[in-house]
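Worked example (supplementary).
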Amino acid sequence: MTDSIREIRLGLAAGEFSSVEITQDYLNKINLHNPTLNCFITITDELALEQAKAADESIARGEIKTLTGVPIAHKDIYCTDGIKTSCASKMLDNFIAPYDATVIEHFKRDGAVILGKTNMDEFAMGSSNENSYYGSVANPWDLGRVPGGSSGGSASAVAAGLAPAATGTDTGGSIRQPAALCGITGIKPTYGRVSRYGMIAFGSSLDQGGPLAHSAEDCALLLQTMAGFDPRDSTSIDQSVPDYSVDLAQDIEGIKIGLPREYFAEGLDADIANVIASAVDEFRRLGAEIVDITLPNTKLSIPVYYVVAPAECSSNLSRFDGVRFGYRCDNPTDLEDLYKRSRGEGFGDEVIRRIMIGTYALSAGYYDAYYLKAQQLRRLIKEDYEKAFERVDMILCPTTPEVAFKQGEKTDDPVSMYLQDIYTISLNLAGLPGMSIPAGFSQGLPVGLQLIGNYFEESRLLNVAHRFQQATDWHLQSPEMK
Amino acid sequence: MSLKKEAVRKIAHLARLQIDESDLDRYATDLSNILTLFEQMNQVDASDIVPMAHPMDATQRLRPDEVTELDQRDKFQAIAPDVNRGLYRVPKVIE
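After joint prediction of all chains, the assembly is encoded as:
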């Protein structure tokens, strides 16, 4: 049994196993380990086996698309027609999506099988997956620790071998940070590359979907399915999608990789610094030229992000009013009571905090001091990157300042949780693509390395990550599941 | 920056959120800590910088004014909390 999508495709095409067999095998593992890990909110076993059977019939007829018969899990933020899509919120506990997100439509088009919907931080707000209405998710490397967030269920499921790959979304690091903490590979594409249609909105100018899998090679295949212009998403970019797999093995001799000195400063765990230094040596051996660069406004990215994201969230989440879908409180006395209690009872703590912060930052008298100022500083952060990319082809840094932390360790202090996002959020503010790949271990826990590319350079990122993964075996390590 | 209970009550009203009286202190502390974090933005003078709303500075795309959606009222109302004869029911608004 393999968790490599490339090998699953080859095995299916050669008739070594059927899609029904491999799907059943993953469902068995999910049933065995989900009670401990809690990485799935919904297991779509009947649908999965039905799709697998149809895939086997297609394969028998010789009709094989890019992902025919390959089982995939989806973050419960993607609307899936006829399937509960909760966003890990009590607000949407009863929500059966009446349509497919474009991403789901693409996976169906390319023949993939849906294993189920994965757990996450409520409305994708969080860095530990402890903000879920359905309970926290365990990290398969140490069950007492968090898997990261917000795509924590997706990362935990892939790392534990309950799915060969899963979709995620990334507003401030929600693909890369859990990929790092669970020892897998994840890519956040350029803003506008993957359609946001049917992906429940959090911060509309920041949100971007992407895959989590075991290797850059598998991420290339999955991104191929996910990416593309979509007229139904007004911020989707109308640009053709390259073949992400064709340049994977290309030589990286002479590539200029920048190390931003602000990312290796105070606050970075010493073990992580060592792991990243070894990885940098590996890139040197592969022919990369390492360049010292500076991103002077890095520190501003935390306050800027925590103004912009909550402001957008307070606006996006105003649609949850207890009238048309989702949770409604019992016996409302009047319309205002219906709104207030449906929202107050339907949203969890962190979502309420962010709606309130966003409402405050957008309110009369405070708009200029907070929201406008943040949007101005956001441009400074973007310009830092533009200057850096005049000198280098790619940027390398740690994905997180610490390895997976213990459950409950940061839940009482929202600000200390926000500081975990220091290395990931500036990319979302700038709209740049980035990925996290496993680079080693610290005290038995995975360490993630982040690669940041220029706009629409996903191919180059995947190429550089793939070359690293050909030279190392960190991405092949997996936790022991009892 | 510190927010008083009364300010939290007002923000909650603006956001149409029912907050238990007993939770107001906790939210006041959390929100005040977050606002303190925002004070770092004051270290930089950004008055000359054009605010950035979109990473690619893209403008809104227009499309031909054509019907693209079909009527799916029954499907959409099947998941509504309370409907009657094709209408969403809410408490009486006008006396």
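Two points are worth noting when inspecting this output. Residues 368-391 of chain A form the longest helix (24 residues). Chain A touches chain B through 72 residues (CB under 8 Å).
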